[in-house]
Write a structure and sequence with these properties.
The complex is a heterodimer of chains A (632) and B (699).
Chain A lengths: L4 E4 L9 H10 L9 E5 L2 E5 L8 H5 L5 E3 L6 E3 L23 H5 L6 H9 L3 H11 L3 H7 L3 H4 L12 H13 L16 E5 L3 H12 L3 E5 L8 H4 L8 H12 L4 E3 L10 H6 L2 E6 L5 E2 L12 E3 H9 L10 E4 L3 H12 L6 E3 L11 H9 L4 E2 L2 E9 L2 E12 L10 E3 L5 E4 L2 E4 L3 E2 L3 H4 L26 E3 L2 H4 L4 H19 L36 H4 L12 H8 L8 H5 L6 E3 L4 E3 L5 H5 L5 H5 L5 E4 L12
Parallel strand pairs in A: 6-7, 6-9, 7-8, 9-21, 11-19, 12-13, 12-19, 13-14
Antiparallel strand pairs in A: 1-24, 2-3, 4-5, 10-20, 15-16, 16-17, 16-18, 22-23
Chain B lengths: L4 E6 L8 E7 L2 E7 L12 H4 L1 H5 L9 E3 L8 E3 L2 H19 L4 E5 L6 H11 L4 E2 L7 H11 L4 E2 L7 E5 L13 H9 L3 E5 L5 H5 L2 E3 L6 H14 L5 H7 E2 L1 H11 L2 H8 L3 H13 L3 E5 L9 H14 L9 E2 L9 H5 L6 H5 L8 H5 L5 H10 L7 E5 L3 H4 L3 H10 L2 E6 L11 E4 L8 E3 L7 E5 L11 H11 L8 H9 L6 H7 L1 E3 L7 H4 L8 E2 L3 H6 L26 E7 L13 H4 L6 E4 L1 H6 L7 E6 L2 E9 L7 E5 L41 E8 L3
Parallel strand pairs in B: 6-7, 6-15, 9-10, 9-13, 10-11, 12-21, 15-16, 16-17, 22-26, 23-25
Antiparallel strand pairs in B: 1-2, 2-3, 4-5, 4-17, 8-14, 18-19, 19-20, 22-27, 23-26, 24-25, 24-27
The chains are: A alpha/beta (632), B alpha/beta (699).
């Protein structure tokens, strides 16, 4: 027997649920979890069923190796003997093993973190890395830069402290960079369509990565000299060493993605022109690179720098000392990056001015801590009113003290000046780093009538598709400054949309259902085991160079830390892209479609599709199907 | 290991017809699968059929006869033998006949398990004209209405490759519209057709339709007249057919032109007049075109008006009995249900006593009574009392309008026997409970009452407990009453099959018989009406004293006819939304099905919901001038904000008190059965439309 999978003609399902009952009857299953089921969203229905995926993420995610894929037929099966329900306790498997672990729920890219840590705990590093890369191609970047919301919700903290997930991710990503795990290059069958990605930041590159794996010809257009977008220009090397970024970009290139630098789209080269060149879809991920102005008198004085411009200069090799006493205005990561960079370039008395309180600072606590460790003062509740200087060069700031109002209707505190508290600060230079926005000026003219009030391309929040069906957009360019992982997530979602678009499929079907997080995991049988200590370069060594501050962890520590995971969810259940893997609560084991093993032995069709009145479910070798039948 | 035996049979978990292969092991059905050689199901099955083993082997199913032990409706039962059960029933019937006459016995059925031939035979030979079925507002009502219009029921001919399908008030993908499954519709649709959907609610068909007419519930007859208006104005009708085959064209034409300008139709139906024009044009000019109608069109005061008007559409566009249009199928040459039922043996004297027979003359013509007539006779003793009843597979407490009255009547009737699978809220009011067999336990020439040209061999796969197929119950009761029956059920089947020259044993092997289809039969012999023509002007209705021409009568309780109620009941309740898993009041106890629809759903437009502070998933009260129920809200932006759409058939088998929550979520607590709301000729109940209000449940 050749390769067989179930396939779906997605427009035909009429929501009769017959497949569900046929499946239960065939397997003698009681009411309860369903391995095939109909999602009703009137007037559309979608049958969720096992596609026996090519890459079988459930198999990748299973730490016990209990999920197998038959090389001949391609059928994916759960071995009930080996499956331990991700450490489900017999008889009390945890009430919510069907739900999603809080780490995955918290991750904007929805990495199956639990699967990753459980595999890592067994030393299955290559498998763990593969699992990450299903959702995020750049673990070495996120392993350094991510504010790790996954750790914030980790239920291990109910016992002691959350898992050091980011450190594990970094370790795994770096194994690939160091050549200890070969780069995965399994590209699905080649496709002839060309896709243009505008912008080579994390969103653009992630999109390029997933489209390249789907077999598309991808060209990335970058207006700067170097690829990487904000990662290349805005992140100092002590947070992200240049060779790490270079290696990740090289990985993308190795998949056949062409990256054209110094090639701006919007002026000479237009979207229309690219269409004529044969590009069939576009992902615009231009980032947010235009520094916001403070709009105070004196901002034009020499010695007043714009944060991102300043960081960009450093990243392109400038080691300019702009003075001893440097005031950095702002409270976000760009401000912290600027002040810490200045400190490293000899501005011994660099400091931060921020208009609101410490609690309100948008920079991550980690960044703020490291900043303080480096002896850099942060003056909060201070708002510059004007910059003054002599001979056209800034020499000081007139500022005012601020106070926070009571919580307003939106739950926020506003900052307001305290009258009569104006004062002056002497400075040698000022860096304004109060935020960046996207610059759509050159592209806007190409999308008349398709922009928001703010002049940004209007997109569908679910599919990222614009009013122009072949144009998609995501990342900071449409959202404003956000995290790397959010940009990566957009890139991947755009890739899914573009793939569906180019295949003529429904972009929104089955997406945006939302996932339910676990609230009460089982954890009674776990003993205390404190989180590993993560070490940093000593502060006195930091301020003299751009050496990486955060140190990685060793293999031994990864093994120890990963074992702390309490497996709140079920790895295969939560990685399943079609939401069909189920947890059989009484048995404490995962269950899934076996494509009606017994019937197949008799050469009969699986029960679900035999009864389907619209024949919207088919089985067989997808390569041999015609028309609209396909694997979702 | 014992062998698995495969038995070819026919499903009856809804109105039936789909071929099944049942696997039997050790005397137990272990699995059912679709029969690919079935001309009806072609291998497909629905949830209801697939879940039959869970129903048949349900732990709460009653497997032996019971008699009441304790007060009526008290929920206490005692096991008895079949002999005792049958003797008790026949003993009681004899006493009633002696005291008051056979007409004081009511025989009833619900949607039926293919035993109407046997039920009617029993009733006719008993001498009672009072047979209480669902037919007054379901199927028989369309058979009756078309009988007097074109001789029999015209059915969408999907095999004949329609190029335009009008799906009128029907969800064929979820429910069985009598003759055809969604499967047949779907195959025809996939060949590429123009699709017109008439539905207050956007569902699967509306979503795929070329035109969706979002009609005000209950106004189908007006819309149908609007279609005529366009077709007449634009002269899109088949001139030859109209001249030669239609009786009363001129007066009909005149009525349409005088009374139904599109502006008026738009006002009545809420459908934009240009859309009506577009739809009527599409239907009239795409050939062949068929109309597939659903039961909501019958459950109104306009049942006969709608059915006759729409039959008129099929006729004047030349689609009647044309391939791919609406056709009059030819049944195989078996004995008809009418002949088997011995309608002719019911004496004219007894016929005259039929409750409401002088009022609902078309209903009487098809041997039906309206339920309210029965309830009134029980509750008031007028015109004469009903003292004893036998209800077979019927749950009127849940499924008939004004459920409170139905409950009161069935609680009051002196003697009630119920044949069913479970102790339903209706069965709980009985004196004797008879355990019926499911379709797995039945030998029958199935579908012989339908108009689709087939009879199908439903063969018994197993016997379960002491359950009897309903046919056997009537046969044994009849024999005990001294009626002319056969020794066995199978002997009776031989009698049914005799004209086809085939025995039951041979028929079982064959699987089905199909009548040889001939199109355009009218060209040879006209239509089976008094004038041999399609009677748009009905000579029969005229003779009976009704308006001979179809018209639209405003829904009895609506924003137009009862504006004074709008303050308290501002919305139109569209009752009776179907689900993919339940069949009327059945299946609520089947786990595989109930988990798909655990709660009754009421669809509310998001704007309306917001006005009342109702969120998706909230339990809400729905109230009407008759009472209040609760269901769970499902917000649906694809209905009119003035319309509320609620599911029907709800009770809670898991509630162990004998009421089983019959009045908690039962939509028929809200519906009305007053005489002025019924179809004047058929007696159809308005089960579909009344005024209502919604509010969030506080608990």
């Amino acid at each position: 027997m050749g390769k067989v999978v179930l396939m779906l003609n997605e427009v035909d399902c009429m929501g009769c649920h017959a497949c569900e009952v046929a499946c239960k009857q065939e397997h003698g299953s009681p009411a309860g979890p369903k391995v095939i089921r109909i999602i009703e969203s009137s007037p559309y229905f979608k049958p969720l069923f096992c596609h026996h995926c090519e890459d079988a993420p459930c198999r990748l995610a299973c730490p016990e190796g209990a999920i197998t894929k038959d090389g001949n037929t391609g059928i994916v099966l759960v071995d009930r003997e080996k499956c331990d329900g991700c450490k489900a306790e017999a008889g009390k498997s945890g009430p919510e093993k069907q739900e999603t672990s809080s780490c995955k729920y918290g991750c904007p890219a929805q990495i199956d973190v639990q699967g990753v840590t459980t595999l890592a705990a067994k030393g299955k590093f290559a498998e763990a890395l593969r699992l990450i890369k299903l959702a995020n191609p750049f673990p070495s970047l996120c392993g350094r830069l991510c504010p790790h919301p996954c750790e914030a919700g980790c239920f291990r903290s109910q016992i002691d402290q959350p898992l050091a997930i980011r450190a594990i991710e970094r370790f795994l990503g770096d194994l690939e960079i160091k050549g200890k795990i070969p780069i995965q290059r399994e590209i699905k069958s080649k496709r002839k369509e060309k896709v243009a990605v505008i912008g080579s930041g994390p969103a653009g590159l992630a999109c390029a990565y997933y489209l390249a794996l789907e077999g598309y010809r991808v060209v990335v257009f970058e207006k700067d000299e170097h690829p990487g977008g904000m990662l290349a220009v805005g992140i100092p090397a002590y947070r992200l060493p240049a060779e790490i970024l270079a290696a990740q970009i090289e990985m993308i290139r190795s998949l056949g993605v062409v990256i054209k630098t110094r090639c701006e789209v919007g002026r000479k080269k237009t979207i229309g022109g690219l269409r004529k060149e044969g590009f069939k879809a576009f992902f615009i991920a231009i980032g947010a690179h235009k520094g916001s102005r403070l709009n105070v008198p004196g901002e034009e004085l020499a010695g007043v720098y714009q944060g991102l411009e300043y960081l960009k200069g450093i990243n392109s090799g400038s080691r300019l000392n702009i003075g001893k006493r440097v005031a950095v205005i702002g409270g976000g990561n760009a401000a912290i990056d600027s002040v810490r960079s200045a400190r490293r370039l000899g501005s011994d008395e660099a400091f931060i001015l921020y208009r609101r309180g410490m609690k309100e600072m948008p920079a991550t606590p980690e960044e703020i801590n490291q900043c303080r460790e480096e002896g850099i003062p942060i003056r909060t509740l201070t708002q510059p009113l004007k910059f003054f200087g002599s001979n056209g060069r800034v020499t000081g700031i007139e500022a005012v003290r601020m106070r926070l109002t009571e919580l307003d209707d939106t739950g926020r505190r506003k900052a307001e000046p305290v009258l009569g508290t104006e004062f002056k600060i002497k400075v040698d230079a000022v860096i304004v780093a109060i935020g960046q926005e996207a610059d759509w000026d050159s592209l806007a003219s190409q999308f008349p009538g398709s922009l928001t009030d703010r002049g940004i391309l209007r997109i569908d929040p679910l599919t990222l598709q614009s009013d122009h069906p072949d144009v998609f957009s995501g990342g900071d360019g449409v959202r404003g400054s956000r995290t790397v992982v959010e940009a990566i997530s957009d890139g991947r979602r755009a890739a899914v949309s573009i793939n569906r678009y180019l295949r003529g499929e429904n972009l929104s079907l089955g997406r945006g259902n939302g996932i339910n997080p676990i609230k009460n995991p089982q954890h009674s049988r776990y003993e205390k085991a404190p989180r590993i200590e993560l070490s940093c370069l000593a502060p006195d060594l930091r301020i003299t160079s751009f050496r990486e501050v955060q140190k990685g962890i060793t293999k031994a520590l990864v093994l120890r830390e990963a074992k702390r995971c309490i497996s709140c969810g079920t790895s295969c259940v939560q990685i399943c892209p079609y939401e069909v893997m189920q947890f059989d609560q009484p048995a404490g084991k995962a269950i899934k479609c076996d494509l009606c093993l017994e019937k197949r032995e008799k050469n009969e069709a699986p029960a679900c599709l035999a009864v389907c009145p619209t024949r919207c479910i088919l089985w067989g070798d997808p390569e041999k199907q015609e028309g609209k039948y396909r694997i979702l | 290991m014992t062998e698995v035996k495969k038995i070819r049979t026919v499903c009856r978990s809804c109105h039936g017809g789909c071929g099944v292969i049942a696997q039997v092991k050790d005397g137990r059905v272990i699995k059912v699968e679709g029969d690919p050689s079935s001309p009806i199901g072609r291998g497909t099955l629905c949830t209801k059929g697939l879940a039959i083993t869970q129903l048949a082997y349900h732990p709460e199913r009653i497997l032996y006869p019971l008699k009441r032990a304790g007060r009526k409706g008290g929920g206490k039962w005692e096991r008895i033998t079949w002999d005792e059960a049958l003797d008790t029933i026949t003993g009681k019937f004899r006493k009633v006949i002696a005291r008051l006459g056979p007409e004081s016995i009511v025989i009833g059925q619900g949607t039926g398990r293919d035993y109407e031939s046997h039920l009617y035979r029993f009733a006719n030979l008993l001498g009672t004209p009072n047979v209480l079925t669902a037919g007054h507002m379901c199927y028989v009502s369309r058979v009756g209405s078309t009988l007097i219009t074109c001789g029999t029921l015209p059915i969408a001919d999907y095999e004949g490759d329609p190029k335009c399908i009008v799906m009128w008030a029907c969800n064929p993908q979820w429910t069985n519209p009598d003759e055809y499954k969604g499967e047949a519709f779907f195959r025809a649709y996939k060949k590429g057709v123009k699709l017109i959907c008439i539905d207050p609610r956007k569902g699967y068909v509306a979503d795929r339709a070329d035109l969706w007419l979002k009609i005000r519930p209950g106004t189908d007859a007006a819309l149908s007249l609007g279609f005529h208006r366009v077709i007449i104005e634009e002269e899109l009708y088949d001139r030859d057919f109209v001249e030669n085959q239609v009786h009363g064209w001129e007066p009909f034409r005149e009525r349409v032109m005088n009374d139904y300008p599109l502006e008026v139709v738009e006002k009545i139906t809420w459908v934009d007049k240009d859309l009506i024009r577009q739809a009527a044009r599409m239907y009239a000019t795409t050939k062949p075109a068929c109309i597939h109608w659903g039961v909501p069109t019958e459950q109104t005061i306009n049942c006969v008006n709608y059915t006759r008007t729409t039959t008129g559409l099929m006729a004047i566009t030349g689609n009647l009995d044309a391939p791919g249009g609406n056709v009059l199928f030819v049944n195989p040459p078996t004995r008809t249900v009418a002949e088997f039922s011995r309608h002719r043996d019911l004496s004219p004297k007894q016929q005259e006593k039929r409750l409401g027979g002088d009022q609902f003359k078309l209903g009487a013509r098809v041997a039906l009574i309206n339920p309210k007539k029965a309830w009134d006779a029980i509750l008031t003793g007028k015109p004469y009392p009903l003292k004893a009843g036998l209800l077979c597979g019927s749950n009127p407490v849940i499924t008939r309008a004004n459920a409170k009255e139905a409950y009161a009547a069935l609680k009051k009737i002196e003697f009630l026997a119920v044949a069913d699978f479970f102790l339903t809220p209706t069965a709980e009011l009985a004196d004797i409970f008879l355990p019926s067999g499911t379709w797995l336990e039945q030998n029958h020439v199935a579908d012989n009452w339908k108009r689709h040209g087939y009879v199908l061999a439903r063969q018994k796969c197993v016997e379960i407990g002491e359950c009897w197929q309903d046919h056997k119950i009537f046969l044994e009761l009849g024999r005990r009453m001294g009626q002319e029956w056969w020794p066995t059920v199978e002997n009776a089947l031989d009698y049914l099959l005799e004209p086809a020259g085939i025995t039951w044993e041979e028929f079982k092997e064959k699987g089905y018989l199909r009548g040889e289809m001939v199109y355009y039969k009218y060209k040879e012999r006209g239509f089976s009406t008094p004038t041999k023509k399609v009677e748009l002007y009905s000579t029969v209705l005229e003779k009976w004293g009704y308006d001979p021409l179809p018209k639209y009568v405003e829904v009895p309780e609506s924003p137009f006819s009862t504006p004074h109620l709008l303050k308290d009941y501002p919305y139109i309740l569209n009752a009776g939304l179907r689900t993919p898993v339940f069949f009327h009041s059945a299946n609520r106890q089947v786990p595989w099905l109930r988990e798909i629809r655990p709660d009754p759903l009421v669809e509310i437009h998001p704007e309306t919901a917001a006005r009342h502070g109702i969120k998706n998933g909230h339990w809400v009260y729905i109230s009407s001038p008759r009472g209040r129920i609760k269901q769970r809200a499902k917000l649906n932006e694809h209905i009119d904000p003035r319309v509320i759409v609620a599911e029907h058939g709800w009770w809670y088998p898991e509630r162990k008190d004998p009421g089983h929550g019959w009045d908690v979520s039962n939509v028929n607590i809200l519906t009305d059965n007053a005489y002025e709301t019924l179809d004047p000729a058929m007696g159809s109940t308005n089960l579909r439309v009344c005024l209502c209000n919604v509010s969030p449940c506080e608990d």
